[in-house]
Amino acid sequence: MGIDERLRASGMRMTVQRRLVLEALQRARHHVTAEDIATRIRARHPQIDPSTVYRNLEALEALGYVTHTHFDDRVTRWHRADAQRHGHLVCRSCGAEQELPIGLLEPLARRLRDDHGFRADLAHSAIVGICK
Amino acid sequence: MGIDERLRASGMRMTVQRRLVLEALQRARHHVTAEDIATRIRARHPQIDPSTVYRNLEALEALGYVTHTHFDDRVTRWHRADAQRHGHLVCRSCGAEQELPIGLLEPLARRLRDDHGFRADLAHSAIVGICK
DNA sequence: TGGCTTATCGCAAACAGCCGCAATAGTGGT
DNA sequence: ACCACTATTGCGGCTGTTTGCGATAAGCCA
């Protein structure tokens, strides 16, 4: 089932704006900010409001098509959900970001699930610290 | 060495505003938002600007006197650095927050240090997920 | 005590992101 | 092809937080 059908199946509609956000996400290899997407879309379609981009990212996330991650700045990064799940390390002093195999975070996730009944999403926020 | 001396030792100054932020942090038992502090101070000293509170929290953090933690909303929470270090769980659906013994996060921290040379601060961001 | 340096201040404007509103436009049914 | 329903849009305004600015005042020395 394609995106269009899945949207309609949950009572959503496929609009020009939505398709543009989707395309921007597809074209972007890695994490993109909402601003990035908005700017890129507005280059060709200046009438499209940034808030529309934000709302569409939210909507597509509810559908499980994209996810977002918080880094150490206050800017949210978005990417397709079908991409390889991974954690993030970000260095507080030099700002470098690196990805992390999700398996490394599994033991903690399991521990939180078993001992605290908490299903943690450890990829949701970057881990902050100091790299070498 | 008291706060005043430590401030001056690193070229900082003790101002009325800074002392008020300090006092507010001392009075607050747990995590407080900058807004909380600003509002409380401004009740008696309306001329003090919120940005001054933010800058002072930053300054005191640089001195190692306070730290901040990111929860899932975009609001930063502050607390004295001498308080018991702990992790945070926050539920994405009901919003409940609970604290976590820091020891639980140690194995992951050790792993990141040993395998990736990354000194992680796992208390810096709350762990997001779904509680029972 | 008075003067000098400069950290810090208050203010105003910018930032990413969010929300309510009335107008617009997908969509499913006829 | 048209209609009715309502999800979605653009807009304006608001949030919490950060920044650049010129003015103020803390701290040091004479």
Q: What does the model show?
A:
The structure is a homodimer of 132-residue chains. Chain A has 132 residues and is α+β, with helices and mostly antiparallel strands. Chain A has five helices and seven strands. In chain A, strands 1-3-2 form a three-stranded antiparallel sheet. The relative contact order of chain A is 0.13. The mean pLDDT of chain A is 94. Chain A binds chain B through residues 70, 74, 89, 91-92, 98, 100, 104-105, 107-108, 111-112, 115-122, 124-132, and chain B through 70, 74, 89, 91-92, 98, 100, 104-105, 107-108, 111-112, 115-122, 124-132. The structure holds a DNA duplex (30 and 30 nucleotides).
Radius of gyration of chain A: 17 Å
Low-confidence stretches of chain A: none
Report the oligomer: homodimer
Number of strands of chain A: 7
| CA distance, first residue to last residue of chain A | 46 Å
Query: Order of strands in the sheet with the most strands of chain A?
Result: 1-3-2
Query: pLDDT average of chain A, as an integer?
Result: 94
